[in-house]
Design brief:
By secondary structure, this protein is α+β, with helices and mostly antiparallel strands. It is built from one helix and four strands, in the order αββββ. Helices cover 30% and strands 41% of the residues. The protein has a four-stranded antiparallel beta sheet with strand order 1-2-3-4, with no helix packed on it.
Length: 86
């Protein structure tokens, strides 16, 4: 007949496995490549991962801002804004 110590070992082992699975899930769900290189005329203002290998990018080129969608098939322009004259 199993003793209380055996049950405690099983519960502790299961808890450790669940914590490890959660840690791996947390790491991979928050992993997004960092787009850098804001030198020059093209600046990536912000990027968001919206799915597996799918990104939304807010890019500034000279006086124009563009919202781009990037996936396996390529890059598409979703919206473009010109800087208004003040």
């Amino acid at each position: 007949m199993p003793e209380a110590y055996d049950y405690l070992k099983v519960i502790a082992s299961l808890s450790l496995v669940l914590i490890l699975i959660y840690a791996i899930y947390y790491y991979f769900s928050n992993f997004t490549p960092k787009f850098t290189g804001n030198k020059g005329k093209i600046k990536i203002v912000e990027s968001r991962l919206i799915g597996k290998n799918r990104y939304l990018l807010l890019v500034e080129i000279d006086e124009t801002k563009m919202l781009l969608a990037s996936d396996e098939t390529g890059v598409k322009v979703l919206k473009e804004w010109q800087k208004e004259a003040s």
